[in-house]
Structures are given as C-alpha cells and as structure tokens.
Amino acid sequence: MGVEGIGARVARKEDKRFLTGKGRYTDDMSVPGMKYAVFVRSPHAHAKILKVDASAAKGMPGVIDVLDGKQILADGIGNLICGWMIHSKDGSPMKMGAWRPLAHETVRYVGDAVAIVVADSVAEARDAAEAVVVDYQELPVVIDASKAIEAGQPQLHPEAPNNLIFDWQIGDETATDKAIATAAHVTEVTIHNNRLSPNPMEPRAALGIYDAGDDHYTCYTTSQNPHVARLVMSAFYNVAPENKLRVIAPDVGGGFGSKIYIYPEEIVCLWASKRTGVPVKWTSDRTEAFLTDAHGRDHVSTVKMAFDASNRIIGLKVDTIANLGAYMSLFSSAVPTYLYATLLSGQYDIPAIHANVRTVYTNTAPVDAYRGAGRPEATYLLERTMETAARELGVSPAELRRVNFIRSFPHQTPVIMNYDAGDYEASLDAAMQAADWNGFAARKAEAANRGMKRGIGMSCYIEACGIAPSAAVGSLGAGVGLWESAEVRVNAVGTIEVLTGSHSHGQGHETTFAQLVADRFGVPLDSVNIVHGDTDKVQMGMGTYGSRSGAVGMSAVVKALDKVEAKAKKIAAHLMEADESDIVIENGELKVAGTDKSVPWFQMALAAYTAHNLPSGMEPGLKEGAFYDPANFTFPAGCYICEVEVDPDTGRTKIVQFVAADDFGNIINPMIVEGQVHGGIAQGIGQALLESVHYDASGQLLTASYMDYAMPRADDLPSFQVSTSNTPCPNNPLGIKGCGEAGAIGSPPALINAITDAIGNNALTMPATPQKVWAAAHAAK
Amino acid sequence: MAKVTMTVNGRQVSGHCDDRTLLVQFIRENLGLTGTHVGCDTSQCGACVIHMDGKSVKSCSILAAQAAGSTITTIEGLAADGELHPVQAAFKANHGLQCGFCTPGMVMTAVDMIRRHQGQLDEATVRAELEGNICRCTGYHNIVKAILAAAAEMSGARVAAE
C-alpha cells in the first residue's frame, strides 16, 4: 500500500468544504424565481376527507397557489409503490393498499399529506397552510400491529382484510417442530424490537424545477439513490419520462436508510412546479421528519430455541409480527423477510429453522429500512435468546456460543444464505481479551462495594451486505437489480474522474474511491475526483444502502480500472516499442519491467487524446465503464461486549466500556471504517437505552421533537474500543464485506444482556430507561 | 419588514426581513451564508451555532432584529487567510465529521468551549459541554477526540507564545 492507497488512513478529501461551511445540501440550493412549499398534513390518524377548502388560503399574502389531492389525481400522477413483491405462504401476492402523494379520500396517519401551499416565503406558506380548511370525518384508529390483525379492528385499506399485508414463511416447519419436540431443553422468549426514527441531522428536502421550454424537470433531493428515484418517479408516478427528468442528490446530511425511499414530497414539488410555473422548494422541519420519515424496526416475536443434551442448538422457531405503518414504503416488504429471517441462523450451525412473518397495516408512519434493516431485529432476537439460554442452562455465554459456532466455510444455512468466509471464534476471542472478560468478577465486586450493580454482556452478530446478486434478488421478488456501475475517465493531462452510482452521504466515498485509483496507478489522490449523485453525469446506479458501496460500488470501479489499465498498457507499450505484457504501472509511471524505460502517466494519457501515435486500430481517448453484479451477499460478522454499571437507587445505566471486534474483510481506509463503527454503535446504544417512537391510542405521535425523542448525546456515550480481525471476502475483487451497519446491528443485545446481567432479571425491553431498569431491578429482589 | 444591520465575518451587512425572521434565516436566506444549518425546530440540535459578540449562540433561538448591531462570526468566517482554524484542522485530522451537517455547529461550539475553558478540557467536560449539539453519524467518539486535540494544540501554542 502507498501512503494514499488501499489500507491507508487518509484524511478525507471532502472535509474541507464541510468544515468551512461550503457544503451544498438541498436546502442550500437557490434558483431564480424559486418559491417555498409547506404541506397541509392530517392532524388525525384515520379520517375521511370530506372537503378541502383553500379559498381563504389562496388570498393570503405571498401565496402563489394551493394544490390538493384531487388535482394531482386528475393530472395522472401515480400511486407510491413498494418495489419488492412478497407472496404469502398460501401463494397470494402481498396486499398493497393505495398510497396517494396527496390524499384525497382518506388519511391514514398523522402527517399524511393533503395539500401543498406554494408562497413567496416559508413563513407565508405556513400561515396559508393553517388557513386551508379540511373537513375530516374521523375514523377509528389502530396503532398496535398485534391488535390490528384481530377481528373487528379498524380497517386501513380495502385491499388488505384484517390489515394483514402478507403471512410469509421460510424454512422447514416440520423439521423444526420435531427438533423442539425431542429437545433436551427449549428456551422460550418474547422479543420486542422498538420502533425508531432514523433522524439524519439534515431533514429531507426537495427542490422541483420545471422548464417549460424543454418540457424538462430537475429535482434536487435528499436521496441515497438518485437514479432509483428517477426510475421510480418516471416509471410509476408518471412525473416525466427518464430523459426528461434529472435528479440530483448533492451533499446529503446522513441517511441511515430513511433517504432510500421516494416520498410524496419530491413528487409533489415537481408536479407543483409545473402547475405553478415556478421552482418549488420544500424543506422538512424536524417535527415533520418525525411524523413522515419512514420509521424502523417495530417487531414483536415469539421464539423457541431447542438444544440437545450437549447444548447444541437443534432447532429455532420464530413467529414475528412486523408493523409496516399506514402504507407500504419502497422496500418495506423486504426488511422483515429477506433481510431478517434469512439471518436467523446467526453465527451458529442450526440444522432446522422456521420463521413465520406477518406484516400489518396500522395508523402510524410507514416503516422501512433503518440502519441494519432486518438484521438488527434478527441479531437482537438471537443474541437475547442465546443469553437467556446460557442463563437457563447454567453455562457461560461465551461457551454456549463457541459450542454452536459455524466453523467451516462455505456454510449453507437452512434459511437461504450461504456464508462464504468468517472466523467467529477469532472475533469472540479478540473482544473478550480487549474487554478483559476474565477480570470482570473483580470489577463487579469492586462496584458492589460502591453500591453499584455491574454487568457484562456480549453479542455475536452476522449480517448480509452488498445486496446482492441481481438474479437472486429478482427471484425473491425485488423489482430492481442490485448491481452497481462505474466509469473511469482519464483526462488528457492524466487527471482522473471516477463516476459512480454509489452515493456518499457521510461515508467518505470521495476519499476511499479515490484511494483505489491512487493505489492502482500511483497517481496523487488530489488528481482523482469522484463524481456521484447526479443522473445527468452518472448514467445509472443503484445507490448506497445495505453497506454496499465498498463491496459492490468499488468492485464496479475495479472492473473499470482493469479496462483502463489494459488500454493504458497497450498505449505505453506502443510508445516504448515494448511488449504490453512487460508493462508495469508504478508511482505514476508506466515502465518496461527490467529496463529503465518509462512513460509518465500523464504522457500516456496525452498520447491517448492527441491520437498521433496509437497502436493500429485503437480508438482515441481513455474512458472505460463497467457494471458489477455481485456473486453473493457478503457476510460481515463480529463480537461486541458491553459492560455497564446500574445505580440501583435510580435505575440509571452507565456504560463503562464498549468493545467491538469486527470482521469486515479487507479495508480501504481504517479511519473511515472505525468512524462507521462508532456511529453504528451509538445508534445501537440509542435503540437499547434511549430511543423509542411512541404513539398514543388515538394515533398522535408523542415523540415528535428532540424534546421528546431521546437522541443519544455526547454525555450518554462512552468512547469505544474498536478493532478488526479480518477474513477477506472471496467473492469480490477487493475482498470487502462492508462496515456501515454492523455497529447498529451488534450493539443493542450486548447492552441489554449487560444490563440484565447486572440487575439479575432477564425481563427487560428496549429502550432500557431508568424507570424500566429500576422496576426490573427491584422486581428481581 | 425591518432593516437590520450587523457585522458578519468582518463585513457590515444589511437586509430587510420580517420581524419574525430568526437570525439563522437571515444568515442563510438574506446573506446566503448556507454553512449555518437548521436541524430541528426546538433549539436542541445545535447545527445553527454561530458566535455573537464572541459567544456561541444558537442562531435559531434569537430574532434577526435582536442581533442588530452585533458582531457575528459564522463557520464561513472562521478560517483566516484560507488556513483552517486549529479546531477545523483537528476535526479533519481526527475524522470528527461524516455527513458534515452538524459540523459547522460542532466546530463553532468547540471553539467557544476551548476559549471558555482556556484549553483545559478533559473527556467528561467535553461530553458535558456538547449536550446542546447532536450528531447522528460519529457517535461523538472522534468529535471528542478532535476537540481535545485542538484544545491541547491551542493551549500549547498559547503557552509557547507566553
């Protein structure tokens, strides 16, 4: 590795603009004649719309227009869709209810958009929005998913009787039931996975610009995947054909999944721009974000884990109810199925698994992927169950895991996944050593002398990233392929642009993708620019989610670099009258191996463009593109250990150490990887200790601001001890597995296992607030 | 509409705005200084922190008209002569930022924190002082590290100068 190549701890190229206030986020964009939008939203969780009267609002100062759901319907703008088809176990397709970008008949959750007000300023638009009179006829409400599928409950969509979207299963039920029936021990638990709000710090925003001269639309938006946004807006919402629609996701201030989806607002802003003849910008405020950004998690599961007499797991049976909210968001159906139940084997060799998943409509915000997406739910379920089993069986949690680890690869699980590589014991050992697991008893005794209850907990996670071979996901119901594209353009002076379909919203692609090029050609990092986030520049891409940018996006770059390298060598060989097989590229020069003959990189590039002296028949120029379709999922894994002290008087939990030992395969920039782990762990600790979305029985969101929803703050968290012990992924050219979601996946069970260890009561749900912990600690006495 | 005049990043500026205009809106919309961000509507997140008459202030918690006559520094005014301020440099060196959205507020808060504590900071103090700034990307680990590094460097430089 060079100082700027693969594996180097390079400071980020993009930092300067962010540190000096020169970042360009969607709300920073301003175009001539631009006006501001505010949405009129339902204050009711479930109601019929009898009438929308905007006459008073339209006469208010600064108001350009007020547009409603009947108008957008009349203009032929389509329904929002879920892009992953799941079939119930009876063979019937999932029951998708209509989601209109502006509701015109029924609103189904608080925050459902009803109308858009366009005005000269945000303040004037907000004033006018309050003057739009909507007559609602309130309908009964159901919030809880387990209740919503019972008979006689309020019905959200006529398409989905009993609010049941699908009743899906995976695995072998007969074999699993048999294992449970013959088991020496069965551990049974009920697992709640709390609903979360993703909360990227940049709220969602959209700027729709319609150009009547060319009948062309431009949309600046806070998207993790602008090409998918363009595809969906074009193919399903009838906004405009793809060649008439440019989507730009400029600097995006965090996503964590919530900016994958295409929401009503960007569609409505584009449509409203055409209707009003002015560019229309909307920026969410934080309360709107809590109300309308897709939430994450919200599962309730019952679990039976069967063991033989030697503590080996012989069967796992899971029954899950997943709340998908009022409408099916873009990938909502995939999260509690193929991103969840396929990971239920964890790091363990389990011969029989069966999972049943029912997904349910309720009068709450749509639920979709949030950092980890299904894999945190699977990991929390498994690792809480393993911990419970260890306590019931009277064996150490580490030993129970060791006995059950998968130790040879490839390993075919009973739930689709074929694990390609890993060394789970290495991560476990590394974490236990870093945490000084063996010294815990002494620390616990010392804490007890101070009146504190000290506990330790671990979690061994696995996840599936990269998502995934296109043919495989297609056969499972995905509406898109999950490859990635790249184009490498070498300029005539030798500088290089890499265009990628991946999108960076904090991950540092402008640095890490450039490191690949610096590594390959020995050119300075500063001579490489990464271009992303604009459908007019990058031809096509699938975007960034599922920790896929390294494993899939960079693999596409590698394929394009291979082609550039091959042509560059041909040109250099021709210039030096050498054989191309003798050409090596080092330190920015193309050399004839074993001689002192060389051509600088820039001279080769110039030769490609002057085209005065190219090999016979070669086209001028040096630009190559590639699409990379992954051969398999990748399988990052690791072990997390958390140690806590609980104050028995207050129930307050203090995290005294948090250790992460991850296996991410090969690493491009360890500094950036560590940052991803830190952030993921913080979100996992947030879920376990602080965060939870609460609706009251009438469907009002009680946690709709930072005064009410407990975001992790600096003084809630410790510094983290992170390390990696890596087994390269055999299925992609760089050996990368992915690191973006691991922290959020592995950390919640480690923390809850630690707290329940400290208080001596296993009955505790997330978030483990002081009140809950105090009650559980005292119930244990 | 009122006319508001103040000194921003060393330059006297004026603008007309509604009485209800917040200082952060004035900075972003009237002055076009979009480095100061809005991440919430309850003065909790700290993405909008600027310096007003030398102290860190959440610019969403004050009206533009109230800031008339004051001296304001925004994130755009922190780097002198194209050189990053030591706090900015420390954030870069320590990977104290990811998506960059909370970063301007974090940096402005950190500069004021180091000034008030004369560079004498420890991890617990930095974490307590960051209570009013929310970051969703970094888990604060590298932000804390960056602030401690900047504080050490700046107090070292001060000691050397004395």
Automatic annotation (TrEMBL), chain B:
Transcription regulation keyword on record: no
Alphabetical UniProt keywords: 2Fe-2S, Iron, Iron-sulfur, Metal-binding, Oxidoreductase
Residue ranges constituting the 2Fe-2S ferredoxin-type domain according to the UniProt record: 2-78
Signal sequence bounds: none
Superkingdom of origin organism: Bacteria
Pfam families found in the cross-reference section: Fer2, Fer2_2
Molecular-function annotations in GO: 2 iron, 2 sulfur cluster binding; metal ion binding; oxidoreductase activity
Keyword Metal-binding included in the entry's annotation: yes
Protein name: (2Fe-2S)-binding protein
Taxonomic lineage of the native organism: Bacteria, Pseudomonadati, Pseudomonadota, Alphaproteobacteria, Hyphomicrobiales
